[in-house]
Structure formats: structure tokens, C-alpha cells
Amino acid sequence: MNIDTKQVNRFCMLVLAPFIGLLGCILLVHPPLNFPESTIPELQKAEIFSQVQSVDKRLDEAKQTAAYTLSTIRRTSELYKRTTQTMNQLVQTASTQSQRPGIIYDRRITAKLGVPYERVDSHRITLELFKVNPGVYHGYALKVKLKDPAAMNMSLGSDKLGGSETTMRAVLRHGAVAGINAGGFADGDGKRYPLSTTVLNGHYLTGFQSSFKDLSFVGLSQSGKLIGGKFYNQGALDSLKPAFGATFVPVLLQKGQKMPIPDKWKISPKRAPRTVIGSYKDDQLLMIVVDGYNESGGSGATLEELQGKMYNLGIQDAYNLDGGGSSSLILNGRVVNKPSDGNLRPVPTHFLFYK
Known about the structure:
alpha+beta; single chain; five-stranded antiparallel beta sheet; 6 helices; eight-stranded antiparallel beta sheet
């Protein structure tokens, strides 16, 4: 069955025409709809307004609290700054007060030495050089304050057993600022060997040897204290934790007391160039190097004279090092003393000081 499309369209238009006309009339005749400003009931408006006021009040309170908190933080910050400044001042004062006994003690011992005519100072070490001239001999005193234990060490001649070199050579080779000769030695097969027990870099060079005859050990502990004396077993020396040290003769002072000087060393030789080392109560070191013309006993100082000198200066522990032509003192690249050989003698061990 065939239906004409145009006919269907006409039919639909005829059916819908009344409805379209009615809608047009409604739109033309009926006034526009006016919706109320708010569809919220009055009670709800009042409740919302009350809540808004409450929130505003809380916001004001929060602002006041924040302002008070900020003010409190500022006051606390200022108080903290003032407290920190006060504490720093107290610490500085306490530090100064704690150093006063040491300063006073240092002034006392320095007053006995006189006025230093040369000084080296760094964060690691302080060295002061004095002249020593009591009338019967002439020499030099080097006072050393070790702020760092590593600022002092011992060198081995040419860095090998049996090797030897002058103190100046050792100082220059190791970049030290000062140096003195250290322990005694024995010659053999064209080489020069350190006497008896010798400790280098915390290790025994040729093993421990029990003290015999008048020999004694002298060196520095790992904490920077002068140690020495006679040791008849290795455990006794090990307990002092030696960093380095050498051997010679004799002990001059221990714990502030004069030790007996063997008769042999009072006369053989009677007078001679000497090198001695000692320590004060505060662990500062003092080395005295005495000049002499030769080793025949007619010039220089006796051990008893140097023992008395160290004692009067307030030294607690003191030891004699190798002397004669071995005695040497180097400071700031020059030879301070006058070596009795006319030139510096090569020796196997040296105590060196680093800036």
C-alpha cells in the first residue's frame, strides 16, 4: 500500500495547528512569571544569619589569637636572642677564667727565662727562644707549647736504619720549623745506629730493649706528653703509649726531684756542649742547648749545672740528650747554636717541630 508523503505532512499539520495556536495565545496573553528573590523560608534566613555572625565572631577571635601568638613568638624570639647572647658571654667569660691559671703559670715560668727574642705562633704550636747565660756557660732555651700533639715528631736519618743526617737537613727535608738532635748512637760498618730502644711512629724500630747501665728512654706520648725514664719491661713503656722516642743518659729530673747523676757522667766529660729536654706541669716543653768549644771537658756546661738550671726553672721531668758535636738547635731555617765541630754533625735521630 502506497501512501503519499506530502499527504501525511499535511495531515500532521492540520492535527497540530490548534495546539500551536493555543500555545501562542498563552504566551501572548499571560504575563511573564516572576520568581521570588529567595525561596528560603524566613526561619532559615534567620538561622543562616546567626551562623554567619557566629563565624564572623570566630574569625575575629582567630585573628586576635593569631596576633597574640605572633606577638608571643616575637617576644620569645627576642628573649631567645638575649638569652643566647648572655650564654655566649658566660661561656666566653668561663673560658677566659679557665685559662687564667694557665696564663698566670706561663707568665711565672717565662719570667724566669727572661724576654723571648724570637717567637713562632700558629694554631698548632707556639715556640719562644731565649738566651741562657748564667756566666759559666752560654746557651739557648726553646720553650714549646704543643697545641696539637702531631706538631712534634721524631725523624730517622735519611728515613732508614743506619742512616744519619744533620738536624738542618732533617728540618728542611720534613718541612719543620725547628729541630734539635735527639738520642745517642753507635757506629758500625760505616753506618750510624740509634742506641737501644727507639720508637718511631708508634712502633719499635728494632724491638724493645730493657734499660741497662745508665741508659734511659725519652719521647712523647700519643697525647703529647713528655715521657721517659728506665723501663725494664715493654709493658711498662707500652702503658705510656709512646708515639716516638730515643735513648741516651742520664735522667736529670723526675716529678720535680733531682735524680742522682752517675759519677761517670759527671766527669766524662766534665763540661761539654749539651742538649737537654724537659717538661713543665702544664706539659709545655723546654729544651736547652749549650755551646762549647769541643768535647774535651773544658767548655760548655756540666750535667749538674743543667740539672740545677732546669730545677730552678720549675721543670718537672728532664732528660739529657746526645751532646758534644751532636748538639744542635735549628729555628726558622738557621742554626741557632755554634756546633763544637764547626759544622753540624750527622746523627740518626732528631726531634722536629711543625708550624
